[in-house]
């Protein structure tokens, strides 16, 4: 949406006054698993299993409106994201089913206490110290004061997508 991109530009512009190397994300998603490597012959059975496990889930809304700073596990990248403030329970239920499929294939499951979020911008290195505190408060003020942010940051979950290589698989919710 045009308004979302406008909000993104405001946030990244302000955050760059603290970390000039920040780059805006070009695609947006909310992860329900870690990145894993699927062997080629696992792809079809993995996708079938996901489809079966996710078939009973209804559509739902979540709200991602809390600005938060993240680093990846090995602290080589820092991210600014919007954390989910409503819809957490439904996302945990989805993760539980995705984790079961991952376990079937001996793959690592999701984090035990996940912070569901949509990454907005990133930079190389652990620069979380520069982005937390005053910067984070200013970014949250921008989100809170943005016209229609309550509607803009409300996301309807109609499908779950799985990416394997350059292929996308879609699982519609009821």
UniProtKB/TrEMBL annotation:
Catalytic activity annotation: a 3'-end uridylyl-adenosine-RNA = a 3'-end 2',3'-cyclophospho-uridine-RNA + adenosine; a 3'-end uridylyl-uridine-RNA = a 3'-end 2',3'-cyclophospho-uridine-RNA + uridine
Keyword Nucleus recorded: yes
GO MF: 3'-5'-RNA exonuclease activity; lyase activity
Alphabetically ordered keywords of this record: Hydrolase, Lyase, Nuclease, Nucleus
InterPro entries: Cyclic_Pdiesterase, Usb1
One Pfam family, short name: HVSL
Record SUPFAM superfamilies: LigT-like
GO biological process, one term: U6 snRNA 3'-end processing
Listed GO CC annotations: nucleus
Domain of life: Eukaryota
Signal peptide from the UniProt entry: none
PANTHER family per UniProt: U6 SNRNA PHOSPHODIESTERASE 1
This protein's name: U6 snRNA phosphodiesterase 1
Organism: Aptenodytes patagonicus (King penguin)
Source taxonomy: Eukaryota, Metazoa, Chordata, Craniata, Vertebrata
Protein's gene: USB1
